[in-house]
Amino acid sequence: MHELSIATSLFEQVQRHTPPATRVSGLRVRIGPMQGIEPDSLRFGWEVVWKQSQSDGSAPVPELALEMLPWRLTCPQCSRKWESAELYVACECGCATPAIDGSSELQLVSIEVQDK
């Protein structure tokens, strides 16, 4: 489950970029389809990593908002371009083998903080 290592890396980034006198209340992450991430597994991993980091367990787990990007596809026959949540989708022209132009990004977009 590579989601746990991603959750750990996210936690490390959050710790590096959050001022000490604040409490993290949420973060937003953008994920390309080529990452192969299962959202529920990443949320579970985030919760585990966060709870393990809290010595007294008093801080609530910050909300992890995931923006799952769609696949970008191009038809080799008619040059149509479209986005799809599914990888294997035939083009409207009938071509069953569109070219894949998905993204592999994994980006921490924002961190929400509150004063303690």
Structural overview:
It is a single chain. With 116 residues, the protein is of the alpha+beta class. It has a domain at 2-69 and 104-115: hypothetical protein PF0899 fold (2-Layer Sandwich). It has two helices and six strands; from the N terminus they run αβαβββββ. The strands form two sheets. The protein has a three-stranded mixed β-sheet, with helices on one face. Strands 4-3-5 form a three-stranded antiparallel β-sheet, with no helix packed on it. β3 and β4 (81-84) form a beta hairpin. α1 packs across α2 (39-53).
Would you summarize the structure shown here?
The protein is of the alpha+beta class and 116 residues long.
Helix/strand layout:
Layout: H1 2-17, E1 22-31, H2 39-53, E2 63-68, E3 71-74, E4 81-84, E5 99-100, E6 106-115
Parallel strand pairs: 1-2
Antiparallel strand pairs: 1-6, 3-4, 3-5
Query: If strands are numbered along the chain, what order do they take across the biggest sheet?
Result: 2-1-6
Named CATH topology of the domain at 2-69 and 104-115: hypothetical protein PF0899 fold
Q: How many strand segments?
A: 6
Quaternary structure annotation = single chain
Poorly predicted segments? none
Distance between the termini: 34 Å
Give the class from helix and strand content and strand pairing. alpha+beta
Cα-atom radius of gyration:
18 Å
Helix count from the secondary structure assignment: 2
Order of helices and strands: HEHEEEEE
The helix fraction, in percent, is 25-40%
Report the mean per-residue pLDDT as an integer.
92
Question: Which overall shape is indicated by the principal axes computed on the Cα atoms?
Answer: elongated
> Main sheet, how many strands, which sense, barrel?
3 strands, mixed
User: What is the CATH-assigned architecture of the domain at 2-69 and 104-115?
Assistant: 2-Layer Sandwich
- Bin the strand percentage: 25-35%
